[in-house]
């Protein structure tokens, strides 16, 4: 029996990847200037659980620069553990509500800060990526 397979989307050309790396570095600089911890998650081994703005690039043609907000494990772990055990989505436990609220507030903050700094930002498709903010480019003055 053949192994089931799926095709990955095509990768962007090297010059586009290089532009994305530059944009991701610029995103980190602007977030740090605004007082937020920001780091290149794709360059430091994808450290999960390190609090702050985790900035990375997607290498696919339809990819770009993605910014996720990582909370401290003391906030995320209890919420994710409860979620994994099953919750009432209409009335989630306080730990889950607080975790989701923090992520929602930080998404709005990241989008506002980056837009104010001149970046083109949008909320990506949560089903396809689950990320918080997609940055496509720095707008020209």
Structural class: alpha+beta
Q: Share of helix among residues? A: 25-40%
Largest sheet: 5 strands, mixed
Low-confidence stretches: none
The count of strands amounts to: 5
- In N-to-C order, the SSE pattern is HEEEHHEE
Tell me the span between the first and last alpha carbons: 58 Å
Give the strand order, joined by hyphens, for the main sheet. 1-2-3-5-4
Put simply, the count of helices is 3
Rg estimate, integer Å: 17 Å
Beta-strand share of residues: 15-25%
Overall geometry comes to: globular
- Mean pLDDT metric: 86
Describe the model:
The chain has 141 residues and is of the alpha+beta class. It has a domain at 14-70 and 107-138. The protein has three helices and five strands, in the order H-E-E-E-H-H-E-E. Strands 1-2-3-5-4 form a five-stranded mixed beta sheet, covered by helices on one side. A hairpin with a 7-residue loop joins strand 2 and strand 3. Helix 2 packs across helix 3 (94-116). The mean pLDDT is 86.
């Amino acid at each position: 029996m053949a192994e089931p397979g799926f095709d990955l989307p095509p990768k962007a050309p090297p010059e586009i990847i290089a532009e994305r790396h530059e944009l991701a570095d610029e995103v980190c600089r602007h977030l740090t200037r605004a007082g937020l911890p920001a780091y290149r998650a794709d360059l430091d081994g994808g450290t999960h659980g390190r609090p702050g703005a985790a900035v990375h690039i997607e290498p696919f043609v339809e990819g770009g620069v993605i910014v996720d907000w990582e909370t401290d494990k003391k906030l995320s772990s209890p919420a994710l553990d409860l979620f994994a055990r099953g919750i009432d989505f209409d009335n989630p436990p306080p730990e889950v509500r607080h975790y989701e609220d923090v992520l929602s507030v930080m998404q709005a903050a990241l989008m506002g800060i980056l837009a104010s700094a001149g970046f083109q930002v949008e909320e990506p498709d949560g089903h396809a990526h689950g990320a918080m903010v997609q940055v496509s480019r720095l707008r020209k003055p």
